Structures are given as C-alpha cells and as structure tokens.
Amino acid sequence: MRSVKSYRAPQNPNRESMPHPLTARRSARISGRVRVPGDKSISHRALILGALAIGRTRIAGLLAAEDVMATAQAVDELGAEVTQKDGTVEVLGQGVGGLRAPQGPLDFGNSGTGSRLMLGVVAGHDMRVEFTGDASLCRRPMGRVLTPLITMGLQVEAQGEGGTLPLTVRGTGDILPIEYDLPVPSAQVKSAILFAGLHAPGRTTVIEPLATRDHTERMLAFFGAELHAEDKAGGGRAVTVCGDAELHGAALSVPGDPSSAAFLIAAALICPGSDLVVENVLMNPTRTGFLDTLREMGASIEVLDLRDEGGEPVGDLRVKAGPLKGVRVPPERAPSMIDEYPVLAVVAAFAEGETHMAGLAELKVKESDRLAATAAGLEACGVAVRIEGDDLIVRGRGAVKGGALVETHMDHRIAMAFLILGLGASEPVTVDDVTMIATSFPGFAALMTSLGAELA
Ligand code: S3P
Question: Which spans in 55-208 are helix H?
Fold first, then answer.
C-alpha cells in the first residue's frame, strides 16, 4: 500500500524554463488495438466523492496524470487518506463535512477542474484554505465559481488580480442552499455548487442553459445522494441535490477518456490506410459531440460492444481513414465536445471544404486561449483559417503543408492537436513544448509511436 505522496506523478519545478520540443512527421498508417488512460473528469470526481463518503472507495483505472494527482494530493491533505495498491487507488472517506484544514496551500498545478471542484467542497467546511496553481491556472477566471459559492456562504479573504488564483477562502459549516442559473455552460461550476450543496440544509438547484457533462450527477447518485434532474426546453437542464447528504464508499472503474481518444481517432482519420480500435472509451452522450461531428464529415467510426460500466456507457471504437468533407458545427453542441475543438480544427484542415465551428467563447478561457492558439497554429502550417467573433472557420483542402514551429502556450491539448497535424502534413511540424501533455495524457508520444506515428 503506497501513500499518494509517493504515488503522485513527478512534477517538474523548472517546467516553464525547460521546454521540450517534439517533431511529428508524415506517417504511413495508424493501426492497432489500444486503450487510452482513464477519463480525467471522472477521475477527479471519484477522488472527491470518495473523500466525502463514509468508508473506503476503491477506484480502478484512475488517470495517473498530473492534474488528477494534484486533486489526489489535495484530498489527502484535507484528511481523506489516498493510497495505491496493485493499480487500484483507495480513498478513506471522512463523510460530508468531515474534512480537516490542510497544513499548507493546496497546489492544483494546471488543473482548472480540480481547483474549481474543490472550491465547492471547501465552501461547506469551516476552514481556511489557500488555493494555488501554475502560471496558466493563475490566469484563469475563478469568479464564475466564487460568485455562487459566496452567495452560499463562502468568504474570499485574498485573491489574485481579477479574481484569480492564488486565492485564500474560508468555508462554513452553515452553508446555505441556493437555486442558481448558470451564466455559462460549465460542468465545473455546476459541480462546485452541487458539492457545496451536499452540506447545505435543503435543496440546491443548478439550472444550466445547455446540458454539460453529467458525471457529477451520475456519480452522486452512485454514492447514494438524492438527486433530481429535469430537462428544460431548448437543451438546458435543472439539477437538484438534497443537502445533509450521506454518501457511502463505493467501488468504481474509470473508463477511457474520450477527449484523449480524440487524438488517436483524428490521427487514424488523416493518415491513409489507418485502421484503429480504441477500447473501453467513455460514450456518455454529454461527451460524444466530436464523434457526431466526425460522422457528419463522413468519417468511418463504428461503436463495438456498447456496455454499461458503473453507471456510464462505454464502447470500443473502430476508426478507418477516408475522405472527409467540411461541415457546420452548431453552437449548442459545444459543451459536448468543448475540449475537442483544437483537434477537430486539425481534422477539418484535411477535409474538403469549409468547417464552421460556432459559439466557441468558452475556448478562450481554457488552459490557453485555445481559439487564438488553434488559429495561429493552423495558419503557421499553411491552412486557411479565420476567427469571426466566437466562431472558428477552417477551409480544408484535403491536404496540409505543415513545415512550422507551433506555439503551445503551456496547453496540453494544443500540443497534442498539432503533433497529430504533423502526422498527416507534407512537411514536419514541431511543437515548442510537450511537457504539459503529462497533465492529461501520460505516455501519449510512446502510445502514438507504437501505433505507427513518426514522433521524435
Ligand atoms: C470539465 C469541464 C469542462 C472541460 C474540462 C473538464 C469537467 O470545463 O473543459 O476539461 O471535468 O467538469 P468547463 O466546465 O469549464 O466548461
């Protein structure tokens, strides 16, 4: 049995001063049968709900990436011991309201999800906690989470300029239930409010304008919380959690991350002759917008053996290369594929015709401004691309020149997206730094290479 202190993925304190570039070259075919690491969203939530449950939670397939390890470390410092044995992670839950103040600041590294979800947890505990993170996380907006949590009773004692990390907050044992209309479609904000609502006397309701990923709701029900969800006209949803909840430790298995599988799928689509099976991929309908869009573009993607695992649908995906055409991606689809737009834009560059991706305002506040970073990278690689308001428009010509150095802006998904572009481009593509890939997809380059990708 190893403590999370030794289990934590190695962090590189000099990361910002030691970039590690990598070059992708045109590759023959991407083929094989593989699995991708566990889903990041589910991994964070499993650790957090494990900490808030009574008794032990056993998690198989937890994503062993830096973002999730930061949450594991935070949960451990709050008194819910995290250990690992034979590939299973165990959390010793302390019950809702049972966590204790940490010794020092909680450092979430690059993780927006970990930090925002944990703000909701801390809000319902009478304790003072300092939240910090890396340079990218310290630029991201926290006001969207703080505003509803302050209404519930959280106090903010110190914050970075414009309401960013580093933040010092004081939670309360007397948190209040609220009904809150989300101004942005964000699963992170929804989840933070629901986690705070677990401690409140009464019902806490979040109304979302467009349905976002629902792993928190599914997992809360799995751990024994009383929860109601109601679909609203126009694609929205109201979710209510009953407070003073008692959660019970559970055993769960984390399926493969569809946002990581997206890079493999994209590579198989653009490298001629590819035939790839990605096994055990999460197929939750709030996460499958990328697959829907690719099918509209003409992609050959088959779902084999669709099954249920621990309250989430899972399947094996078979992808074959083939010609693609440009499509219009409606704004209401954005929440179900928000992390996949950079790699979709790359695929669109290899399609024939225009792909118009509408309503991407949220992309500007991810690990980098992904709207700008994606457009700049495509342009450097000779792709005709433009931004109109919050829309990204890519004119595909069936082939891409490449031959560029792409700036990743400390963003793992920009790095992976442009390495994929390089596998199909005529000339090699170098990305300036791949160290951030470890935040979500450890072993990405080795896995891609094992499938036939030319990365060095
Ligand atoms: C996530 C929600 C999304 C997504 C992020 C993970 C989650 O962010 O981009 O990678 O696990 O809840 P928003 O909720 O801010 O859209």
Answer: 66-77, 112-123, 143-152, 187-197
Residue nearest to atom 16 of ligand 1 (CA): 186
Q: Which atom of ligand 1 is nearest to the CA of 191?
A: 12
> How close is the Cα of 164 to the center of ligand 1, in Å?
17
Interstrand relation of 227-231 and 237-242 (parallel, antiparallel or unpaired): antiparallel
Over residues 46-102, the pLDDT tens digits come to 999 999 999 999 999 999 999 999 999 999 999 999 999 988 999 999 999 999 999
> Is residue 282 located within the same domain as residue 417?
yes
Expressed in angstroms and rounded, the spacing between residue 273 Cα and the centre of ligand 1 is 34
Answer whether residue 401 shows pLDDT above 90. yes
Q: In this predicted model, what pLDDT tens digit does every residue of 6-44 receive, in sequence order?
A: 554 445 444 556 899 999 999 999 999 999 999 999 999
Contact present, 31 and 113 (Cβ < 8 Å): no
Produce one character per residue of 274-290: b if its CB has 16 or more CB atoms within 10 Å, e if not: bebbbbbbbbbebbbbb
Within this chain, do residues 245 and 304 fall inside the same structural domain, yes or no?
A: no
Q: Does residue 284 sit in the same domain as residue 338?
A: yes
Candidates 42, 111, 113, 413: which one to mutate for ligand 1, based on the most atoms within 8 Å of Cβ?
113
Around ligand 1, the residues with Cβ closer than 6 Å are: 41, 113, 186-188, 191, 213, 338-339, 362
Based on the fold, state whether residues 60 and 99 are members of the same structural domain: yes
| Residue 150 structural domain | 40-253
CATH number at residue 45: 3.65.10.10
pTM tops 0.85: yes
Atom of ligand 1 nearest to the CA of 213: 12
Closest CA to 150 of 115, 196, 107: 196
Question: How many Å lie between the centroid of ligand 1 and the Cα of residue 199?
Answer: 23
Looking at the structure of the chain, the number of domains it has is 2
pLDDT digit string (tens) for 127-173?
A: 999 999 999 999 999 999 999 999 999 999 999 998 999 999 999 99
